Amino acid sequence: MAAASPSPLPTSVSSADANPAATRAFLGRLVDAVKRALAGARPWPELIDRSALSRPESLSDATARLRKNLAYFRVNYAAIVALSLAATLLAHPFSLAALLALLSAWCFLYLLRPADAPPLAAFGRTFSDRETLGGLIVASAFVVFLTSVGSLIFSALALGAALVCAHGAFRVPEDLFLDEPASDAGASLNLLSFITTATGGRV
């Protein structure tokens, strides 16, 4: 009696690996963008100068100080918020691992996939780019809103924003030179332009 042929099993994911050239371009532009952003940071001793701290006289005074300090220390403040987020995630390894897995899925299944790569195939069916994008969006919403990852991220951002607002309200900005070149503001708007270039305009 002939042995029965094994039943077909669901196929594993057969998407092509991310294009190495695109990956290198993405990482290179990411590093360059971070370096350009950090190059605009003000000296940290100037930020933490205790002699320049004083209690604001009123709410309008605090708001005016915060507005000026945000314009002057914007890179330093962004670094403070980023450090708050990083410290919070490092203190919760499971949430950090879940977030890294989600970011990896976005990179390798959508952002960095070559344009001529075959459609994603899994569990016996083929998924189009639109279906893959929809699945990633659903997975992102699940991780951010239905797990502890989202609450940790929002808590870290709130803590960083609170520190920035407190410093901006108490730091006297009279000794700061707030004249900025017009091109500097335009450059800050293009900090994340490397994403579009590295991914071939998919974002």
UniProtKB/TrEMBL annotation:
UniProt key word Oxidoreductase: no
Function (record text): May be involved in both secretory and endocytic intracellular trafficking in the endosomal/prevacuolar compartments.
Matching InterPro entries: Prenylated_rab_accept_PRA1
Protein's recorded name: PRA1 family protein
The entry's keywords: Membrane, Transmembrane, Transmembrane helix, Transport
Stated family: Belongs to the PRA1 family.
Short name of one Pfam family: PRA1
The keyword Transmembrane helix belongs to this UniProt entry's keyword annotation: yes
Source species, domain of life: Eukaryota
An annotated GO BP: vesicle-mediated transport
TM annotation in the entry: 71-90, 96-112, 133-164
Gene Ontology CC annotations of this record: endoplasmic reticulum; Golgi apparatus; membrane
Subcellular compartments: Membrane
UniProt membrane topology term: Multi-pass membrane protein
